[in-house]
Amino acid sequence: MGKYKVIVAEEALLMLGSFIDVIASKDSKAALAWKNQIYNSINTLSDFPFMYPILDLRDSFLKKYHKCVVNKQVVILYQIEEDKVYIDWIIESNQDFYRLL
Fold first, then answer.
1. CB 3.0 to 4.6 Å from 23: which of 9, 16, 31, 41, for a disulfide?
2. Stretch 68-75: mean pLDDT
3. DSSP-assigned beta bridge partners for residue 79
4. Residue 40 to residues 9, 25, 46, 62, 64: CA-CA distances in angstroms?
5. Nearest to 98 by CA among 52, 60, 62
6. pTM for the complete prediction?
7. In the structure, what pLDDT confidence band is assigned to residue 6 with cuts at 50, 70 and 90?
8. Cβ contacts of 70 within 8 Å, gap of 6 or more
9. Is residue 86 within 8 Å of 9, Cβ to Cβ?
């Protein structure tokens, strides 16, 4: 199987930027490590998009989303369509997924 093209939504990039800014204001090394961890997870999706489970949600429309847990604080929500991975959200793990989707 070939690589999938990963497309990150503007909203997800803004969320990522805000996470990194908050961490960088306290510890720039930690912010860089966090950023690298998130980008490594994103890069993994291009090779193995099905390795993460589909969200277990009541609404069947939302069952198209996969959940990649990056670390205890960050989750990537994405969907797969043909040979593309669409990252729609990079969120804090304690956020309510229903409210966002």
1. 31
2. 90
3. 65, 86
4. 17, 22, 10, 25, 22
5. 62
6. 0.85
7. very high
8. 37, 38, 41, 76
9. yes
